[in-house]
């Protein structure tokens, strides 16, 4: 039968110990409520002896949150154990979590206790905790730098005193999957033995980026509880990330053959809530819950995804509560993704129009990092309005308030390139003069409008112009991250329209002769 791994969430205790995080009771209650929807088995609500605020928050959670076990942390002292119990005694399913360090470094420098004294403190504290609460967890802090035989001796004493969960912390994130797995195997063999009522747990820190890997090694070696925090928050580099361990166990159930009670669709909402309330952003490329976890930019990947999602995704984004696969349009994107993005916003372009719009998109992609739907519409609009009898190749302006503004435009028509260099009353006027010189027409500017399409310093602007040319009124749109270039494009678009209309008139006149 597939065994269950208990998910012990310590976002509100170890996670809240992260520098700069200070959640009030209301926020902790909100997170605890969301953790309950997520389906974690245990919520470590805090460390009641640490402060009055912590005590109050743990008590509020114990009283109001129904479903998961509510755990409170305590050092191996009578006062801590009593404070922990007082805070959680009203919970439907309370747990006291007693800890004391067992490594030589901690015992000597921090506790200034002999190993025998540490063992005695464990026996006394666990006995006291068990006299108050049926569910007691014991953790030998800095377990991975402890003498393994001493660690086993202390854990056995904790079990004898009534602890039913033995949690092995890699407090400073020092372990590697190999040695942590071996330590867990030893604890399973020598502390749990054959007992079904004893659960071995893993609590891994991420100082070497190995927390999730170490937790998986623990499960592989018989641990049936994993401790962690949402978004992997916690002391220093943080704890095992709940979303990562849960999805690793689920996606690779072929390897681990265990299950959790987590409702995975709640992972992303939980991550977002914790990020919002703690003020800790989620890194873009964070596994499972990062905004790029299901975003693909390379043309090859996008092409694969459009054919078959599993080519580049091992999880369904919706299964973890993310909105869906994102084909991020950028300079690495291909035509297929570009067309797909247009189709999604209801813009259908085919053939040459698609080619033109795609070419323009690629030009802009070199200048702009991300594209919004509005950007795409603007690109297509600009391309579809351009008849391109004369094509703009480059524009350059110089001068300013003290030197007369000049504009140079380089254009191409019928395979030949020409350059026009003109002065104007201002930059826009100089560009306007250069554009009409290229067409050899007289024109009047009737309207000039700049509209930023997207926020940010790399925003795309849409420039719309209206011109009177040869007695007709023509408008043009130019889209660019650069207003000078956008203006030139808009003038050229209007002039090309006028030229196309005149050609049409001439053709019609010739046909009537
Ligand atoms: O990292 C650690 O050792 C802890 C214990 C209190 C379990 O957080
Ligand atoms: Zn910890």
Q: Quick summary of this structure?
A:
The chain has 513 residues and is an alpha/beta fold. Helices cover 43% and strands 21% of the residues. The strands form 5 sheets. Strands 2-3-4-5-6-7-8-9 form an 8-stranded parallel beta barrel, surrounded by 9 helices.
Question: What would you say this structure looks like, in words?
Answer:
The chain has helices at residues 25-38, 52-64, 78-88, 104-111, 115-132, 148-160, 177-192, 211-220, 242-251, 253-256, 267-278, 299-307, 335-344, 351-365, 373-385, 427-439, 483-512, and strands at 3-4, 6-9, 42-46, 69-75, 94-101, 136-141, 165-170, 199-204, 225-228, 258-259, 295-296, 326-327, 391-398, 406-413, 416-423, 443-452, 461-469, 472-480. The chain is α/β, with parallel strands linked by helices. The chain has three domains: 3-278, TIM Barrel (Alpha-Beta Barrel); 295-368, no CATH class; 386-512, Alpha-isopropylmalate synthase LeuA, regulatory domain (Double Stranded RNA Binding Domain, 2-Layer Sandwich), CATH 3.30.160.270. Strands 2-3-4-5-6-7-8-9 form an eight-stranded parallel beta barrel, surrounded by nine helices. It has a three-stranded antiparallel β-sheet with strand order 13-14-15. Strands 16-17-18 form a three-stranded antiparallel β-sheet. β6, α6 (148-160) and β7 form a beta-alpha-beta unit. The chain is elongated. The N and C termini lie far apart (92 Å). Bound molecules: 3-methyl-2-oxobutanoic acid and zinc ion. Zinc ion binds next to loops.
């Amino acid at each position: 039968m597939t065994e269950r791994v208990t998910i012990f969430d310590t976002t509100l205790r170890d996670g809240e110990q992260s520098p700069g995080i200070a959640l009030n009771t209301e926020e902790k209650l909100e997170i605890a409520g969301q953790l309950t929807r997520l389906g974690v088995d245990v919520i470590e609500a805090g460390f009641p002896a640490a402060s009055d605020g912590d005590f109050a928050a743990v008590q509020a959670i114990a009283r109001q949150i129904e479903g998961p076990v509510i755990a409170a942390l305590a050092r191996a002292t009578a006062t801590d154990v009593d404070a922990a119990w007082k805070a959680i005694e009203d919970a439907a399913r309370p747990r006291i979590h007693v800890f004391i360090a067992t490594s030589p470094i901690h015992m000597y420098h921090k506790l200034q206790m002999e190993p025998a004294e540490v063992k005695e403190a464990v026996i006394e504290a666990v006995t006291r905790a068990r006299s108050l609460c049926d569910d007691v967890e014991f953790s030998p802090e800095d377990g991975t730098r402890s003498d393994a035989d001493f660690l086993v001796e202390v854990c056995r004493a904790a079990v004898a005193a009534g602890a039913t969960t033995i949690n092995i912390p890699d407090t400073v994130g020092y372990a590697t999957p190999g040695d942590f797995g071996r330590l867990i195997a030893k604890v399973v063999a020598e502390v749990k033995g054959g007992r079904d009522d004893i659960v071995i747990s893993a609590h891994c820190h991420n100082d070497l980026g190995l927390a999730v890997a170490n937790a998986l090694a623990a499960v592989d070696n018989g641990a049936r509880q994993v401790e962690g925090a949402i978004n992997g928050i916690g002391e220093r580099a943080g704890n095992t990330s709940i979303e990562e361990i849960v999805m690793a166990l689920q996606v690779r159930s072929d390897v681990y053959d265990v299950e959790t009670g987590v409702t995975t669709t709640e992972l992303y909402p939980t991550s977002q809530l914790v990020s919002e309330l703690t003020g800790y952003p989620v890194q873009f490329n964070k596994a499972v819950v990062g905004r790029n976890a299901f975003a693909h930019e390379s043309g090859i990947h996008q092409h694969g995804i459009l054919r078959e999602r599993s080519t580049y995704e091992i999880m369904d984004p919706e299964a973890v509560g993310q909105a869906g696969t994102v084909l991020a349009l950028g300079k690495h994107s291909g035509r297929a993704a570009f067309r797909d993005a247009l189709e999604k916003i209801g813009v259908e372009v085919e053939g040459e129009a698609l080619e033109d719009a795609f070419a323009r998109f690629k030009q802009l992609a070199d200048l702009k990092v991300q594209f919004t739907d509005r950007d795409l519409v603007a690109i297509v609009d600009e391309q579809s309005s351009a008849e391109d009898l004369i094509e703009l190749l480059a524009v350059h302006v110089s001068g300013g308030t003290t030197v007369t503004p000049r504009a140079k435009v380089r254009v191409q028509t019928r395979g030949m390139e020409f350059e026009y260099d003109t002065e104007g009353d201002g930059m826009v006027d100089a560009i306007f003069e250069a554009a009409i010189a290229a067409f050899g027409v007289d024109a009047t500017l009737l309207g000039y409008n700049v509209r930023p399409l997207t926020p940010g310093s790399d925003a795309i602007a849409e420039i719309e112009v209206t011109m009177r040319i040869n007695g007709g009124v023509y408008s043009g749109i130019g889209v660019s991250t650069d207003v000078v270039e956008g203006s030139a494009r808009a003038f050229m678009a209007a002039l090309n329209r006028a030229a196309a209309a005149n050609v049409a008139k001439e053709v019609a006149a010739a046909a009537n002769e």
